[in-house]
Amino acid sequence: MDGVLVVDKPSGPTSFDVVRQVRTLLKVKKVGHTGTLDPMATGVLPICLGEATKVAGFVTEGDKAYEATVHLGVETDTQDAEGKVLAEAPVPPLTGALVESALAPFRGTFEQVPPMFSAVKVAGKRLYELARAGEEVERAGRQVTVYELTLRDFSATRLRLSVRCSKGFFVRTLAYDIGRALGCGAHLAALRRTVSGPFVLSQALPLAELPALAQDREALVRKLQPLSAALSNLPELRVSAEAAVRVSHGVPLEAPPLPGRIRVVGPEGALLAVAEVVRGRLSYLRVLV
């Protein structure tokens, strides 16, 4: 069984819990997810099955979109609702203009310092391992991009936001930084991922429906997104049947100047490889045939 099963993850399980459940129920050996969701978070979690695991790393590179709820006036050690409260402060009277002024610095490209409770490595160790041991270390900022940051609504102590961002962006840290900008502190109260790379929430299967679907193989196959869909956000280079054979042998074909990573497909649209164009020829990152 090959393809991508887009799961609507509920709050509670880790992304690896979902992978284990999919592997057990579907009896598939090769299973992997494409971008971790925190246990508290819900929404789009693409699960790669079989041959699709070969492109999981490329799917992870895609942009993400979220609906987020920020609770003002309370900071936690994890920057979300699951952490220990570190500080509380009164929230200033909010106006749309005040909130927008706090959001403004977090649009576009900027440096974001990852939270201590994260899988980012410093000196070979995961930050969350150090945090659980009671250590806090200096973390270098990482370049991230927020393409859209929209204030949906707000109350005396809560903001509801829509975010579209690059990979590696921490919405928890955005909540923390907004709280600091408003002078009262904040944490992430709820998070729902609506887009992950080429996959959207309308394609997602609620995890609770998976056991029943696992009993109906035909229905399950219909829910799978094909391998080519996993990379549909990459520019496409279509080659002839003769050239497809050469791609399968790793021959660096001549190619037009396309930027970044591309997907190479055969005459019928079958995915052949992921590549880059270097000095006018294909440089293969992954050959899939």
Tell me what the structure shows.
The active site is at 38 (nucleophile). Its EC number is 5.4.99.25. The structure is a single chain. The chain has three domains: 3-62 and 198-230, Pseudouridine synthase; 67-189, Pseudouridine synthase; 234-287, Roll (Archaeosine Trna-guanine Transglycosylase, Chain: A, domain 4). The two termini are 16 Å apart. The model has no long low-confidence stretch (mean pLDDT 93). It is globular. The chain is α+β, with helices and mostly antiparallel strands and 289 residues long. A hairpin with a 3-residue loop joins strand 10 (142-154) and strand 11. The chain contains eight helices and 18 strands. Helix 3 (96-103) packs across helix 5 (171-182).
Strand coverage percent:
35-45%
- Alpha carbon gyration radius: 21 Å
Tell me the name of the CATH class of the largest domain.
Answer: Alpha Beta
CATH homologous superfamily grouping of the largest domain: Pseudouridine synthase
Number of strands: 18
Number of domains: 3
Within the CATH hierarchy, at the fold level, what is the topology of the largest domain?
Pseudouridine synthase
Helix content range of the residues, please? 10-25%
Active site: 38 (nucleophile)
Family: Belongs to the pseudouridine synthase TruB family. Type 1 subfamily.
Domain tRNA pseudouridine synthase II TruB subfamily 2 C-terminal: 235-288
Catalytic activity: uridine(55) in tRNA = pseudouridine(55) in tRNA
